[in-house]
Amino acid sequence: MADAVPLLDLKAQFEGIRDEVTRAVLSVLESQRFIFGPEVEALEKEVAAYCGVPRAVGVSSGTDALLVTLMALGVGPGDEVATSPFTFFATAGSIHRLGARPVFVDIRPDTFNLDPEKLEASLTEKTRAVIAVHLFGQCAEIDRIREIADPRGIPVVEDAAQALGASWKGRKAGALGRAGCFSFFPSKNLGGLGDGGMVVSTDPDLAERVRLLRHHGQVDAYRHAYVGGNFRLDAIQAAALRVKLARLDAWSAARAEHAAWYTREIRREGLEEFLTPPAVLPGAGHVFNQFTLRAKRRDALKEHLKARGIGHAVYYPLPLHLQPCFGYLGYKEGDFPVSEKAAAEVISLPVYPELTPSQMERVLEALKDFYKAS
């Protein structure tokens, strides 16, 4: 369809950085240093400085960032980790893989992030960590979460896979808890050429354990302090990500401008009866990895958008507590009603930085045609 609007257009992004990325990748090919090396070290320093933390450790994916952070915290069989049921599977999957038990806490209806007021009741003597998800690019209320967790000695881990560059009361995601976990999956606001991730930490000792664990716990050649894994970030990924990191704030600003335009136009067109734009809390710097709103007759709207060639997605149609693989946890429908309602209503629209005004107008026209003609 000639006038289709994709949900995300990575080709448009690449056109603006083609030469720099190509040079960066070729430099790694010429060096033949594909594992660790200067590109990975430089990216780690740049991300640490960007987030305002002492240390950053490149890893193989956002999922592995969560997994290796929990390993470094000593999470294991018999432990519990509290988190949101309305997030990507990796959040709870990483807990399960270590033999620990995911304990879910319902979300706020306006931000889709974990509701701090419901957290305390979920904590027990077995709770070893809290994973606060910064969903869709907005930080969870980390100060309130820490007010509950810190006195109990429970570390707070930020699942910031969608939130590099986001902030809460002037501090960047990743610098708000004990550790922050980022994903460089291509669709993220800082996306690589494949899988990649990063752990940042305000705790140098924790960061050092993560650094060792990502390479089989090796402290010297063939001498291992821990049983770790192969969670390394490739040098080619690091080289490309360094090019993109320099543009991240400009891209985030463009996403925020597009989100503000949608919100303004939805209100101007009188569509708030049908569509609820995402809330941005005071003190939050939202980077809009997704522009996710609530929609009446969501599933019918999906079909309409598909017919009009308008990219869209539903994150996440089945909350984690209702996933078949987590049936052993004993949760049932109705246990987390806010998450379940969100799963039935949310839809994400194109918000990527390279969107043109005419493309955004086509998205708006499709929304108007669906709700005003029906």
Describe the protein in words.
With 374 residues, this protein is of the alpha/beta class. It has 2 domains: 10-245, Type I PLP-dependent aspartate aminotransferase-like (Major domain) (Aspartate Aminotransferase, domain 2, 3-Layer(aba) Sandwich), CATH 3.40.640; 248-372, Aspartate Aminotransferase, domain 1 (Alpha-Beta Complex). It contains 11 helices and 15 strands. 49% of the residues are buried. The mean pLDDT is 97.
CATH architecture term of the largest domain: 3-Layer(aba) Sandwich
Fourth-tier CATH superfamily name of the largest domain: Type I PLP-dependent aspartate aminotransferase-like (Major domain)
Largest sheet: 7 strands, mixed
The CATH C-level name of the largest domain is Alpha Beta
Distance between the termini: 24 Å
CATH topology of the largest domain: Aspartate Aminotransferase, domain 2
Structural domain count: 2
Helix and strand element order: HHEHEHEEHEEEEEHEEHHEEEHHEH
Strand content: 5-15%
Structural class: alpha/beta
Write the SSE topology.
Elements: H1 10-31, H2 38-51, E1 55-59, H3 62-72, E2 80-83, H4 90-97, E3 101-104, E4 127-133, H5 142-149, E5 156-159, E6 167-168, E7 171-172, E8 179-183, E9 197-201, H6 204-213, E10 218-220, E11 223-224, H7 235-245, H8 248-268, E12 275-276, E13 284-285, E14 291-295, H9 298-308, H10 337-345, E15 346-349, H11 357-372
Parallel strand pairs: 2-3, 2-4, 4-5, 5-8
Antiparallel strand pairs: 1-9, 6-7, 6-13, 8-9, 10-11, 12-14, 14-15
Summarize the structure.
The chain is α/β, with parallel strands linked by helices and 374 residues long. It is built from eleven helices and 15 strands.
